[in-house]
Amino acid sequence: MKDIVFYYDPISPFAHLAFERLPETLMGHSVHVRYKPILFAALLKAHGQLGPAEIPSKRDWTYRHVSWLGHHHGVALEMPAAHPFNPLPLLRLGLGCATDDAPGETNRYVTEQLLRHVWNGGLDAADPARLAALQALLQDHMAQRGKPWQAPDGEGVKHSLRANTDEALALGLFGVPAMVMDGRVFWGFDALPMLRAAVDGDSWFDTQWDAAAQRPAAVSRLKA
What we know:
Elements: E1 2-8, H1 13-25, E2 31-37, H2 40-47, H3 56-73, H4 88-95, H5 108-119, H6 128-145, H7 155-170, E3 178-181, E4 184-187, H8 192-200, H9 204-207, H10 209-213
């Protein structure tokens, strides 16, 4: 059985798209997917990058593109009332549902609730009343499973988020969603066909995965 780690931040519409289409991508294979929330902004800071929503023209394109991708692929996706927003409350709510047998992880149901909270309905993802309702839903989910709920503002949850993000950086992740299998990083919604090929055992990965990246740089832009 293949093991895939799905790193995500609910602030990303591409994470939502990839999450919704992942079961179809992996259909017919026995695969264990683990979902790990990370702070996308920390990746951007570590790599000295701006987010797509921080570049005005790219922001406009990104919102149009993801709206079209949702339409094209049959995935319900509505832009939230404001974007970007602070995703920390959502990330910590999700990690409040982590269990001892899967530390730092959110199960598929919890991951789905976090992403759909943002990308379904066109509402304010940071609205306190909505966040309170989501917390109640997740607490009930944990109670039904007979699992303890961790306070989202507790040090344990904060540590888990930092640890997940540090782990992502150590793996070389630079964006979300990122799916890691067999030490290989597959970035973005449009990497799903490539991930499927890897799961299928496509021989391209034996000869070209490393070779394709082994190119010298002819020029390097220097920072002023």
